[in-house]
Amino acid sequence: MRLDKFTLRGQEAIQTAIEAAEKQQNQQVEPSHLLFAMLEQPEGIVRPILGKLGANVQVILNDVQAAIGRLPKVQGGQQYFSPGLSQVFTAAQKEADSMKDEFVSTEHLLIAIADAKDDNAGKIRERTLMAKLNVNGKTFDVQAEADTPLLWIIREHVGLTGTKYGCGVAQCGACSVHINGELQRSCSIPLGSLKAGDKIVTIEGLSPNASHPIQKAWAELDVPQCGYCQSGQIMAAAALLKKNPKPTDQDIDQAMTNICRCGTYQRIRAGVHLAAGQPNGSRAAAPATSKS
């Protein structure tokens, strides 16, 4: 396949792959060399594409380098393309043709490498998981590594940013969502642990137009101060009322272990009581204070 069929960046990647094979004394230029070259391009699009897919680029790069290190070495001789790389070029050309692109780009090459069989570079696809997630009643196709936390799937892939990052270790509760009706801290839920039938609800899907009793009580009592933790607080409070429609202060404290750095705990308690229709959910009973 002639080089003038590739974009300039594609040509640069191929040349860098040849040089990488030569440096490692590999007589055949493999798809691993090409993937390494594309990952190393300072202004290339391969790293951003893999990042958006949720792939760990550094892990892939380490794997590719290790794969290159295991390839047979020869002294002298001219480098030539392996059958596997020739197949990648052919597949990339077909991909470009299907997209009606005049030239083969590094994006086409990446797709072809990801489809490659029996080659270490094909591990890109093995490291990612295609999943269908039901979020707020809508189905989303998500491709990411199996160990990607649900929090980042919700924020970066689905595009719902009401669920917040607080600690990353399931301690603060800012990332709280409902999974099959149960309160869960999404920063500790790996994508690979979810099933297609699981129903995920975020703060955006709790109710239309913020009409849930908890949301209405929060607004009436001005519960939030800075507001950062409050989506998690609301999700926790909603889960509590679903299980215990008339909770006491002790019930609230035991069920809601979310952290509020502004200390709005008494207003949170009052908001829960107001949503439950209890008399102690009054504005006067709800100053900001430390949890006690």
Layout of helices and strands, plus pairs?
Blueprint: H1 8-23, E1 28-29, H2 31-40, H3 46-52, H4 57-70, E2 80-81, H5 83-98, H6 106-114, H7 123-126, E3 129-135, E4 138-144, H8 150-158, E5 176-179, E6 182-185, E7 199-201, H9 213-221, H10 230-243, H11 249-255, H12 265-275
Parallel strand pairs: 1-2, 3-7
Antiparallel strand pairs: 3-4, 5-6, 5-7
Helix pairs in contact: 1-2, 2-4, 5-6, 9-12
Q: Specify the CATH class of the largest domain.
A: Mainly Alpha
- Regarding quaternary structure, what we see is single chain
Total domain modules: 3
What characterizes the major β-sheet? Answer: 5 strands, mixed
Count of helical regions: 12
Low-confidence runs of at least 5 consecutive residues: 282-290
Structure, described:
There is one protein chain. This protein has 292 residues and is α/β, with parallel strands linked by helices. It folds into 3 domains: 3-126, Double Clp-N motif, CATH 1.10.1780; 129-205, Roll (Ubiquitin-like (UB roll)), CATH 3.10.20.30; 208-285, DNA polymerase, domain 1. It has 12 helices and 7 strands. Strand 3 (129-135) and strand 4 (138-144) form a beta hairpin. Helix 5 (83-98) crosses helix 6. The protein is elongated and about 85 Å long. The relative contact order is 0.09. Residues 282-290 have low confidence and may be disordered.
